[in-house]
Design goal:
Layout (H helix, E strand, L loop, with lengths): L2 E10 L2 E11 L4 E5 L6 H9 L6 E6 L2 E2 L10 E4 L11 H11 L4 H14 L15 H14 L4 E5 L7 H18 L2 E6 L2 H7 L2 E6 L2 E6 L1 H6 L4 H6 L4 E3 L18 E3 L4 E4 L7 E11 L2 E8 L4 E7 H7 L6 E6 L1 E4 L6 E4 L2
Parallel strand pairs: 3-8, 3-9, 6-7, 7-8
Antiparallel strand pairs: 1-2, 1-4, 4-5, 9-10, 11-12, 12-18, 13-17, 14-15, 14-17, 15-16, 18-19
Length: 343
């Protein structure tokens, strides 16, 4: 029940929403389409669902060509960001809606709805209306409704975007457990990199209608394929090698930008071999992580991340002179990316 996207492109007027894309999504996997606004991720999801027709290419679902099939004939469940529940129907009727259209027997519908209410942990709420539920509960109803038809594929478009941070975190944990239980091939759109990295088996990073990289969370973070992936996934300092920054690492290239993760910067209170001078501007406490904002002697800003134990040992304060050294850098240039670490 996997998905194959073969040479798919899509244009809206003068705007090229999708460049020709080729992508394979494994059966039973949980995959994130990750990228900024305008990257094409929602358009790709809608093309897979049949809500948009591609200008070129084919969509295969479970090895069957679904390109020209109507939405209702693709056996796909779709969940929108803002739930799209029927306000005048109870939770039970919302979940049963598609089954009633398909003329399932009433006893079978009742059993399926009861099973889904239990699955999404909404037992006892079947007779309530959407307005009587919290945002997280409404999103679970939307997921139950999408699962009601026993779809081959579940598609979610920014499913947690309308929720506050705590509810989003709880629902992410719940969705991961749900997926591990039902094993339906699931694709979800998000611009939240933490959400993508926490939930998915594989991440498809998109930019300007193109796929930049496909891989696990660890792969795209540790071995980014392009400057865009490097700068979009995780915090990063983008450095020019033409100034003091190149002294941070002995292998810094002579030309082209250098990418340096904040946690790959070492801070010293005395001069160390290969280190460069800097001044502490701000110290921001983020739980276990401490963000240190600094200025190099040539006036350029740089950010480092250290843990609380390192912070206590260093005893640094705003305005203090310190020294920096890079443990690892990334650079791309015109060739494939590389990473170099201190031996």
């Amino acid at each position: 029940m996997g998905i194959r996207v073969e040479n798919v492109s899509k244009r809206f007027g003068e705007f090229q929403a999708l460049e020709p894309i080729n992508l394979d999504i494994k059966s039973g996997s949980l995959v994130a389409l990750l990228g900024p606004s305008g990257s094409g991720k929602s358009t790709l999801l809608r093309v897979i669902a049949g809500l948009e027709q591609p200008d070129t290419g084919r969509i295969y679902i479970s090895a069957q060509d679904a390109t020209t099939k109507a939405v209702q004939d693709r056996n796909v469940g779709f969940v929108f960001q803002h739930y799209a529940l029927f306000k005048h129907l109870t939770v039970r009727r919302n979940i049963a809606f598609a089954l009633e259209l398909q003329k399932w027997p009433k006893d079978r519908i009742r059993h399926r709805v009861d099973t889904l209410l239990d699955l999404v942990q909404l037992n006892g709420l079947g007779d309530r209306y959407p307005a009587q539920l919290s945002g997280g509960q409404r999103q679970r109803v939307a997921l139950a409704r999408a699962l009601a038809i026993e779809p081959q594929v579940l598609l979610l478009d920014e499913p947690f975007g309308a929720l506050d941070a705590k509810v989003r975190k709880d629902l992410r944990d719940w969705l991961r457990r749900l997926h591990d239980e039902v094993h339906v091939t699931t694709v979800f759109v998000t611009h939240d990199q933490e959400e993508a990295m926490e939930l998915s088996d594989e991440i498809v990073v998109m930019s300007h209608g193109r796929v930049e990289q496909v891989g696990s969370s660890a792969e795209i973070y540790e071995n980014p394929a392009t400057p865009f992936v490097m700068s979009f996934i995780g915090a990063v300092n983008v450095l020019s090698p033409d100034n003091t920054w190149k002294s941070l690492h002995r292998d810094a290239p002579a030309h082209g930008e250098v990418f340096l993760r904040p946690h790959d910067i070492e801070i010293f209170t005395t001069h160390d071999n290969g280190s460069v001078a800097a001044t502490v501007n701000h110290i921001i406490h983020l739980g276990w992580t401490i963000r240190v904002e600094l200025t190099l002697d040539d006036g350029h800003a740089i950010t480092a991340h250290i843990n609380r134990e390192q912070y206590r040992d260093l005893g640094i304060q705003p305005g203090q002179a310190v020294y920096l050294r890079a443990k690892l850098i990334h650079s791309f240039g015109g060739a494939p990316s590389y990473s170099r670490s201190v031996a």
